[in-house]
Amino acid sequence: MKENTYFLNALIDGNSTIIKTLYTSCFPMVRKFVMQNSGKPQDAEDVFQKALLQIAVRYKREKFEINNTFNAYLYTVCKNLWRRELNKSKTRVTNNGVIELVTEEKDQAIAIVEQKRHELFTEKLQQISENCKKILTLFFAKIPYSEIAKEHDYNSETVVRQRVFKCKKQLMNLIKKDHRYLSLVEI
Predict the structure, then answer these.
(1) pLDDT digits (tens, 9 = 90+) for 107-124
(2) Which of 28, 34, 89, 105 is the S-S candidate for 44 at Cβ 3.0 to 4.6 Å?
(3) Same structural domain for residues 94 and 7?
(4) What is the distance in angstroms between the CA of the first residue and the CA of the last residue of the chain?
(5) Is residue 107 part of a domain?
(6) To 10 degrees, the CA torsion angle through 187, 177, 68, 140?
């Protein structure tokens, strides 16, 4: 989409007018998400800034395409970064051992790899059958097997479990066959 390339180039060029537009159109959703998930307004601002920087750095290194609107992509990157922050703070609180100090560059690199993993997963999820897509979407949303069975007229929860297993296997096979998989396995 040309509009996405326009936004990506604006980030690289530091076009303050376009960046202000992104703040106006997307930041309120990000702030709401962060605040609803144990964050503060300052956390939302930090996550939004990191996301813009991460996207710009990645696009500068390797031109990539966004298969959705730019705002949706930016929002997803922000959500992933905030979830990552929550997981890091959870580890710090519960682990009394040595806390590894992560440099900003390493943190950015890890975030980019995680975003690429998410994109690969989402892309391959779209390639499986409609039935599998529906089943896995419900499964990932933690809908009980009993509800999935009712919704899809399966005889039992066991049938749903078998279907989830087969669909996950189909999805994993697609992911593993992709040329990007090996570069995203380990950080």
Answers:
(1) 667 777 788 888 888 888
(2) 34
(3) yes
(4) 30
(5) no
(6) -80
